[in-house]
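Before relying on records like the one below, remember that each one covers exactly one chain. Contacts with other chains, cofactors or solvent are not represented anywhere in the record.
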Amino acid sequence: MNLMNSYVFRLLTMLIISGLLFSACDEEGEGTTPTPDVPEEIIPSFSVIAQVGEEEYMTATDTLTSGKISIIGQGIETQTFGSAVGVGGYVYLVNGGDESTIDQYQVTEKGYEKIASIAVAPLSPVGRFRIIQKVSDSELLLFNWPDDNDVAPYAVVEIPSFTVKTNGTFTVPKVAGFDPVEANGIVKDDKIYLGTMYSNRGAWDSFPDSLITWVYDYPTFENGRMIVSTASLGTVAGFSGPSAILDEQGDIYQQNIRSKHWYNMGTREEMPSVFVRIRDGEYDDSYVFNISDQFPSTVSLIGVQYVGNGIAYGKLLDEDATNEWDQAWSENYTSVVRIDLYNQTVTKLNIPPGPFIAIDGGVLLDDKLYWPISPVGGAAHVYEIDINGGADAFTVGAELDGNSVRAFRIMQND
């Protein structure tokens, strides 16, 4: 081998060896700058809005089934009174404080980060929105009851961009001289079914002998038409929680709130607590589910939560145990009931009763409903309810902050 060939041979050999060493180092991660470990961001699973005394807070928690959820001084101070929804990792709040805004918060491992706010004043002549509801994963509806001139404001907000898509006002007509004092709707396709309460504004001494819903185009709130059910009377506008649900078949079920403490409401036999059904845009008179017939005393449902397949959970007030309406929301006369809309049965759960305003805003995960219940004078807990079970199908979950707490809402931070 001559000198040139010897040189080429040694050069090739060195290159081959260098390549093998480089490949080995690359495979073993040696000889390169290591990538530092970045800790995974851990976001708490749930948000809880609750009031303790005069203060309201929204705080995050990882569990609803055990331990204690501390509200006092935790998270951020809010003034929502439960007007909040969680969608896609964000929480949207109706801020009833001096700012009077709609706020968008993102949930992070460090807490709540305010992303943006929308001023209410340009959107609502009355300066507030009472109701915020999720219409879809990309849309929220804000709404308020009609004012003294029977005018109601609304706004439709696109999310997560958090921009106002449309807003305006419309008049809810008087009916037979009665004022539209309450209204709240449920959206189906391109219509909103606006359940109402009619009475004499300020006096509340008489009511129409029927249930009244207005059907409007959505989201324009135009072309309103009235539909009427004579199954009972009262409000189908909701009060403490919604009174209307939309099932998987596209039917709307409404429950009325009536009270023997309200003037000229009639007896439970004459004007019972019922569920009625709206099908194909009209009241379906073939379906009337008489809740009053299921109980010996005078009862009224004060809000429901739908969990699917014709099953809902409601807040049932025993009115015969109360001396006046004020006791209904301030003392322990309201029980949790499981309602089978299709088979028309009601099962009272063996959960301690509370005021109807202190039983609200649960979250559904798989076949479990997590509902916060805050009895007066007793410990407040989140209850894990098996939606496939009966009166005893529940377990006591996390404890809330003592005897004076009122939980408004639990939301999933998904």
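The CA atoms of residues 344 and 364 lie 22 Å apart.
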